# Entry
Amino acid sequence: MKHILSAFLPAFLTLPVLAVHDGGFLNKITDEYVTPHHKFFVQPDKQPIRVLFILSRAGARGAVELGQRIPLQADYLLTPNHANLAEEDMYESAIAGTTVLEKKRELAQKLETSRDLYVIGNFDFTKLPEDAQFKILSAVRDGAGLLIVQPIGFRKLPYKKLYQEELPAPAFLNGFPFPNEKTVLKAWKVGKGRVVHLAFGSSFIPHYLTLTGPIPVGNTWRSQYENAIALAGLSARFAAGRETEPESPVVRVRDSFNNIVTPPYSAGTLYKDEIGRNGGYRVSRISEASPVGAIRIAAPEVVRGEKPFQGSVSFEKPVPADGKLRVELVDSPFGRIFFRRDLPLKQGVQKTDFTVAKADLPTIAGTVRVSLLAPDGRTLAMEEQLVFFPNRTLDDYPQLGWDTISGMNGILFAPQLLDRLGWTLGLTHPSPGGTNARDMAILNQKMVPYTVRIGLQKSKTGGVAQYRWFFLPKERMKDAEKLDGDECFYRPEVQELWKAGIEYRMTNLPKYGPAIYNLGDENYVDTSGGYGPSDLQYFREFLRKKYGSIEQLNYNWRTSFKDFGEVPHIPQKTAVDSGNYPAWGDHRSYMETMYADCHAFLANEIRKYDPGALVGAEGSVPGDLEKTIETLEYWGPYSNTVEDEVLRSFGGDRVRMLWWGGYPGSHGGRGAYPMPLLGDLVRGTVNGNAWFSTQIGSNHSAFGCDMTIADYVKRYLPYFDRLRNGLAQLMIRNPMTDEGVYFYWSHPSNLACKVNEACVNPTDGLTPLIRYAYRNGRGFEFVSARTSDRLKKAKTVFLCGASALSDKECAALLDFVKNGGTLIADVNPAVMNEHLRTRESNPLEALFGKLGFNDAKKPELKPVSIPGFKAALSGNAGNYSERQYGKGKAVLLNFMLSSAANTADKSTPFDRFIDSFLPAPVYKVAPGLDENAVVRIRHGNGFDLIGATVPPARLGEKCWIALPGKRFFYLCGEGFAGEGNTLELDFARSPFLCYSVFPEKQKEPEFSIARGARGERLAFFGPSLVSGRVFCLELTDPAGQVRRTFVFDRAERAPVIRIAYNEPAGRWKAVLTDVATGLRKTGNFEVTP
# Structure
C-alpha cells in the first residue's frame, strides 16, 4: 500500500495544476461525424450488445464506424498508444483525464457496469492494471465476450487457462472476402463466455487502426473497408454469443467502389451482403466474368501541364461484338468525372488507342477509367489506372497542418481536414520511396516533405557536427561515423553525405507535386563551434572571399599578416578580451555563412530532382536573416517581434507561416479566439496558416479521436471560414501603406552589442517603435545595406543600435538627409564599421557631431528633460541634439527608446514624442487604445484596408480613427457599415475587426454564368479583376449542397467552372461576394445533362 500511495501521490498533486484543458477530444467518442456506410441490420436489436471498447485513441474512429453498421450500446476507454494505459508529460498532463490516476479511475468506474462484450483494439491487454484484467476475465467466465483485435500477427495472452477449449471456426468465415490473406480469427470457450482473437498480420503496428488492418488507399478502399469492418462486427457478435448466421436475409450487392448495384452486373469483383432479421449477416465475394478477359491500360503515370495525353487499352480476348469503349478521367478521391469520350469498337478488336484531356481536373490525382459498353449502353467490363498531375501552385492563403492524412484512414478523415477546414498542405517526413506522399496525393493533400533538419552544433573536437543524420539511407550511416565529428559543411565528403540524404529522401516525391520542400523545423547553428580540424582551411577561404585582400583584413584586424595562410582562427573569448572584435565577428559570420550556405546547397540539390521547387525552412534560428533566406522561397517566423517584421519587410512573396494551434500551454493555443493567427495576419508577418497538430490522438490535435473537430477548435470556425473565403487573401494581397517611415536593419550591429556595452542592442529601440506603430496604425518598413535603394522612398529613418555601419551605408544615409530626409539615431551610431572595427572618427560626424568609438559610453539610466518630452532614460542625458544637413535633419537622441517608452511622463507620452518626427498620418488613430493593440493599414486599388486586434481581455474597447475626409466604410465580408469622417472600431463582440474604406459608395458585384452541359467549361462573366480586390464565388447544386468555392482577385485565379458528368443537372445557385465590401449578389445558371 505504501508503494501504491507513493506512486499515485505525484500525479494527484500535479493534476489540479496541469489538467487545465478540456480532455473530451482525447477521452470521448461521439457519433456526431457520420461517414458514408452501409448498415448490416434490418431492424434494431431489442437488446443491443453492451460493449466496452478499450482502444488506442488514434484509431478509435473504428468503433464509430462499427457502431454505424451494427446496433451497439457502446462505452469507450481510450489509451494514448498501443502499449500504455496513460502517459504523463508537460503536454499530456495539461489535458484533463489523461494522467495515470485519472485513467485508472475512469477504467475502474467503467468496469463497474455489466457488459456483454469487451473489445481490446490495438492495445496490449496485459498493460491494463491487474485488477482490471481480473474483472474483465471474470466477466468472461460469467458469460461475457472478450474480443482482442490485433492489427499485427496473432499472439496469445500469457494466461494458459484461457486457451484450453478452442472453438470451431464460425461459419461466417467461409467465403468471407478477407482484407488480406494473413487474417486470422480464433476463439476459445472460457467458462460461460468466449475469448476471440482477430488478427490481420500487418508488418507494422498501424497507429491509426484498432479494429481493422491496413488497406491500400484507392478507389476500391471503401468496399474493402466495408468488408473489414463487417468482419469486426461479426467477430464482435460471435464473441458476445449473438447470432451471426442470417435468418430470412435481405440481399444486396456492392461493386468494388462500394456502390449498391442491381443486375445485370458489370464484370469484375462484387460483394454480396446477406442481412438477417436476427442481426446476423454474411459477406461473400462474387466474380463476374469479362467478355474480353483481362483489360490492361497503358497510360503515363505522371502528366505535367494541361495538354491532352495519350493512352491505349488492350483486351485479353477479342471484342465479341460491335460496341463502344468509354474513356473517362475521374478525380481522386471524389470520383467526379471531368472527361468522357465514347469510341467505337469493332468486333474482334484487341487493342485501341485513346486521347484524354485533363479537362480542368482540380485534384492532384485521377484515374483513367475505360469501360466496355454493350450496344444498349450497359457496362460489360471496366478497368482503371491511376495518373498523377503534380502541380505546386499554392493558394494565396496556404494552410498547413503538422502531420498529414494517412492512407490507412484518410478517406474517412479527408472531409474533415481537407474539405471542412481547408488545410490542404501537410508536413511530414517522406517514407521510403515516397509512399506516404503518394497516398496523400490520392487523397488530394499536398505534401510538405520534412526532408532534413539542419543543426550545426559544436562537435567533440570543437568543430561542427550535424546533430543527426536521420535522413541518410542506412548504408551511408557508416560514412557519417567515419567523419569522427569533423563535419564542417564545406568538406567535400560532408557535402556528399548531404547529397546522398537528399537523393534518398527525394525518391519519387516530384511525381506527387509537393507544395514546398522543408529543410527543417527549429534549425539552428551553434557559433561556438567551427574550430575543428578542417575549419581552419575553410575559415581562411571565407576571409579571403570576405575581405578580398590581406591588406583589408590587416586594416580591420589591426595586424600585419603577409597572406591569408598566416591568419589564425582566434577563439572567440580571446578575440573579445584582446579587443579584436573583427576576428570575433568573422568567426561568427563564418558560422552564419556556413548555415546559410547549407540551406542554399540543399535547396539546389532538391531542385536537381524537382526543377522549380519551392524550398525553405520554418520556425528556425535565422542567423544572418537576409543572407539565409536569399535563395529560399519559404521561411517561418520565430515569434520575435522585430525579426518577424524584418522578415515581412524583406521577405517579399516568400511563404511565411508560424506554428500555432493546439499547444496546451504555449504559442497562444486554446484561447477563446484564434489570436495568434489573427494577430499575425493583421500584422502581415505571416501569409498562411500553420496548425500544430492535425494528428488524431495527439494532445495537440485539432480533432477528437472520433474525427470530430475538437470543441476548442469549433470556437474558431467562424473566423477560419471568413479567412479562407477571402478575408485572409484580402489582407495578404494588399500591401501595407508606405508612409515613408523606415527602420534601419543592420546585422553587424546585432553582433556588435554582444562584444561591447557601448553598442546597444538594436531590438531595444526597434521593439518600442514597432509597438508604437501598431497602436497608432502607422506604416513602416525596414531598410538595410542590401536594400539601400529603399532610402529613395523614405522620409524618416530610425537608426536603433546601429553601431556598426559601413562607409557605403554612411554615405547613403548622408545623401538621404542631404536630400530632405529625417534621420533619428538613438545611441552611438556607426562607432564601428561593418566588420566591427572600432572607428577613431565617425563618418556621420556631419549629422551627429564628434563620435568616435572612444567617445561612446555605456548608456546609464538617469532623468532627462528635452523639449516636449520627460522621462528617466538610458543614455547620455542632456546630449540630445538636432542638426540641419542639406535639406534634411538629423537627430541624435542619446537615449534608449526602450527606457523612453517605459518611463515617459504622463504629460509627455512616448507616442506623442515619436509623432513629432513623422509626417502626418492619412489615418489618425485616437489615443487611448490598449498598448498591445494592433492597427495595420493596407493600401489597395481604390480603397484602403484597416485591420485591428485587441487582447481578448479588452473586449468592449472602442477606438476612433479620423479619416481623410468623407469616406464609405464596410466590414469586410459582412457589408456596409457607415459613412463619414470618422470610423469607430467597436470591439464589443470580437477582438478582431477588418474594414475597407472607399471614397465612393460601392455597388454589389455583377456577374453571370452561362448555361451549359455537364462536362463542359461554363463561361463566367464577372467584375473587372484588379490585384487585391478579392472575390468569393460559391456554387450550390440543385439539392442545396455547396460544390465549389473560388477565391480570386486576378485572371490567373479566376473561376474555371466545369460541372462533372456525374454531378446533378438542373438549376444551380451562385453567390458572388466582394470580400472587401461584403456586398454580394445571387444568381442562377442551368446545367444540362
